Structure formats: structure tokens, C-alpha cells
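Anyone opening a protein record will find just a pair of labelled lines. The record below illustrates this layout.
***
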Amino acid sequence: APDCSPGPIDIKATARIGTGTLTSAITCIPSATIVPASGLLSLMYDSKRNLLYGLKNTEIDVFNPATMKWGTPIVPGGNGGTGYIAMTLTPDGSKLLVVDLGANTLTIINPDNVAQSTIVTLPQRPIGIAVTKNLSRL
């Protein structure tokens, strides 16, 4: 790692025809900690709770950046899924939505109380998920 102060760095270029600057082109991270994880399909940061969710086939792993530790996974319904493929949060952060391709379902989870979850059977095979501010009242 280069010797640098943490944060954005400008890149300056000079040529015969002039000079230019790319402001905040890169970010210096002088050191990093690698946290072991396996089987993750995707990651999503929850800024409301300062947690990182790691989607797996049958559960959602929960990482706390403050402690640098994996906590108790979210296992909706106590059994988890059969083939999770996508997840997202509602814009207000009140619901975590998870699509299960294996069960053809959408699971709606309250991240503050994961026991409060609702599983909805979808009318057709899901391929992903997106949420707009108009759907945050699920």
C-alpha cells in the first residue's frame, strides 16, 4: 500500500498539450482487514443500522463493521430459504426484502425484529427485486 493519508486523492496529468486534474479520482486506504466469509451471493450495506448483509442461498449473514464480526444470521421463518437470489431494503430501511427462486417467494423482514417476517408466494418466477419510495409501506 502506498504511503498516503486516508481519503480521496486527485490525479494530475501533464502532457505537451496541457495539464489536467481528475479530482478525487481514487481513494487511499492505507490498510485493510480481510474478514473471512464464504458462500456470499451479494452484499448490501444498511446505513440506518450500520450493518452489512451478506446474502447466501438459505440465509442472510449480518456483519457489524464496528466490531468486525459476523453476528447471528437472519433465517426467515426459522428455516431460511431454498434458493435466495436477491435482496434489497425499502428506502426508509424498515423492511428487508428477499427473493427466493427455489420457493418462488418474496420474504418481507423487519430488520429490527426478524421474527416479524411475511412470506408471499409470487405469481411467476422471480429474477430479481427493486424497490421505489412508493413501495416502502409493505
